[in-house]
Design a protein that fits this description.
There is one protein chain. By secondary structure, the protein is of the alpha+beta class. 34% of the residues lie in helices and 36% in strands. Strand 5 and strand 6 (179-192) form a beta hairpin.
Length: 277
Amino acid sequence: MMRLIGLAWASAVCWLLGAVDIVESVAYYTEKPPYIESCRIYEPEFTKCSTRSIQKFMNEVINGIPELLESFGPIDPMRQDQLTFKQANSDVATISANLTELLIRGFGNMVIKESKINKKDFSWQDKIYLPQMRLDGKYKMVGRILTVPLRGAGKIFIEMDDLNILLNVKTRLYEKGGFTFYNVTDVRVQIDVGKVRTNLENLFNGRSKEVERSTNQFFNDNWRDFFEAMRPLVSETVERTLMDLLKKTFDLIPANFFVEDIPNSLELYGRKTQMIT
């Protein structure tokens, strides 16, 4: 009798684990969620509809879509484990840096000012506004920023106000399960800022806290030049993080849900493409 009870209990546990697996192993959406507004690219006012649709969708991403939380994590803060950066032959900086444990805060308050799609290749161009973005992490750096020679390792933050981000995304369409999907192949950003504040701890390997303090003050007093020195690092951090987010998002959600009349890859590229079933 006890053996039968044990077998029944084991079967129930296996059934429950199987049910959990089914819930968690969603490969992609086959039904459009109510928070996505569909638009038609060949109809007037498409850009207005697309801008509205992407803002609503990003609001939902910020609140937390379970599958994206599992594969990517929260959008605010976003995480980047490591970034190696080199800049040489520049008037404002010659540096070699390694950043780790990066946290990117601020995308929870994003405003989609415009979302455009190119009808020829279905690449995107989005204009995004952030009231503030802040990068926190650990750094190792050697080189020069402005006129200051640097060598140090420690904590760093860069805080930027009034960011306008021009996001350019290249895609390649493909089919899966009867739906058309975006394969995100490239992400590039252009960033303009209204103000920058920064602090690098343990500059000059901690030999002089007074020199460290005055150097950080110099960077903040000359924040425009400092940002130009750090612009490639900030841009690459945002590009790499958004590339990861967008690839995981559009592997999950068909492009048809956003653009109802999107062509399939055969219609767009001709017979040279390979359709995935």
